[in-house]
Every structure is written in C-alpha cells, then in structure tokens.
Known about the structure:
Elements (H helix, E strand, L loop, with lengths): L9 H8 L3 H17 L3 H14 L4 H10 L1
Amino acid sequence: MKTINVEVPEDIAKRYLNMSPSEQLSVSKELIRILEKRKGLREIMDDMSEQAKKNGLTPELLEELLKDE
C-alpha cells in the first residue's frame, strides 16, 4: 500500500481524525473501491463507441446526423 494526501474541507478532516482506526480503515477501503471502479476518459469513450455500434450507429450514419446539425 502507498499513502496519499487528499485535500478535504476542514470539518471533514476533523471528523476523519476523530474516527477510530477501524472506521478510518473503512473509509480507506471505500475510497479504494470507488477509485477502482472509476474509468478513464479513453475507457468511457470506448464504451460509448461500443454501445453506439450495438445500437446500429455506423460511421456513415453519424456523419449524416452531424450534417443535419
């Protein structure tokens, strides 16, 4: 594991520092879970592209739709 610094509002920092070690560990685990699920921009764009293909959007149809705008 690696330690990182995360900026939070003063009241949140105080609440965290007043937690028991087991509660702080729970917060750390939740943060890990959230960050593991987070996707990068490229991955999000790839997912959108795949979904568009599944829904029948072809490059030609996209070009035609963009012309109409």
